[in-house]
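Please predict the structure of the following assembly.
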Amino acid sequence: MSEENTEMQLESPETLVEKIRILPGASHDLSSATFEIKEEDHTLGNALRYAVMRNPQVDFCGYSIPHPSEELMNIRIQTADAGLNAVEALDKGLDDILLICQSALKNFQSELEKKDYEIVDF
Amino acid sequence: MLNNTGVIQDEVLSQRLGLIPIKADPREFSWKDADEDPTDQNTIVFKLNIGCRFNPGASSSETDPKKKYINSSVYSSHLKWDPKGDQAERFSDSPIKPVHDDILIAKLRPGQEISCELHCQKGIGRDHAKFSPVATASYRLLPKIIITGDISGDDAYKFQKCFPEGVVDVISENGKMVPKVVNPRKDTVSREVLRHSEFDGKVKLERVRDHFIFNIESTGAISPPELLHMAIEILASKCQTLKQSISSLLVKK
């Protein structure tokens, strides 16, 4: 990531440590867990929920913003498979979004270079 | 606000001024903390000095305020950029100005005047929508029009008229005039075609479930293609940040 983006996020290394935690009530093998993520909203929540749900090894994934004036986002993941716990499923979901971003950006850039569009002045 | 004798109160006028989009690339500027002093790196200064007076050339029976008075309407074009530091040099290619010149700010009558200095700073849309470079952003699915039955002759032209121009073409096929869908993207999904009984059971309106049409309208500061690029990068950087903090959870296990 370029410097510009890290700047736009307004995030310092100290906040990274506290960015995410597992809420009490997770199963012992972490096959199901709820994560509390700070300073995120529907932008990441909905995209992440979708990406995690696409994983066939995941049983359930849902997210919520418990209170609109608290900058917290909860995401619950339950996995069906013993080989994959909730943390790994979350990690996989993030990787998938990154891949989607990469390919979307690459395709967009190459289509833009073709100049196959018209510019309309309003 | 140095002087404001117009009928619009200071705070209302300030609010209106704050909503005027400025044509300046925010990436060329740095963030300004509340306790930080303004510099040429984080602040753009505009000046607004305008007074209204009678137009000596207008006839005495004139009733149109635009002709009767001079400067009866204050527009965004009256904002004068006051370059600070090396700003004049840095932005010599595209001088900083309001995106539109015809935004009405206030109305004045002879003797009234406004004199103020405007400081523009960088912010994010979450703090206030005025900081967002995006006016509207929306998406829809690509419409799909399937002709299942036989439509020909005059009905073909009637069918064509049910859709916006350019969606349906009428072509000649085996000596008959039949409609052909050429550009479903232009369809507004008005469903007009379903109101006519002669097309009953002959047409299906569907959506392509995995074809999204994204529409981004910029306020003018950053171009829409750049906005899309930046948006994708922001989403990616959100994921990167979260991935980094997850690594500590993965280790703990």
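Chain A is about 45% helix and 20% strand. Residues 1-11 of chain A have pLDDT under 50 and may be disordered.
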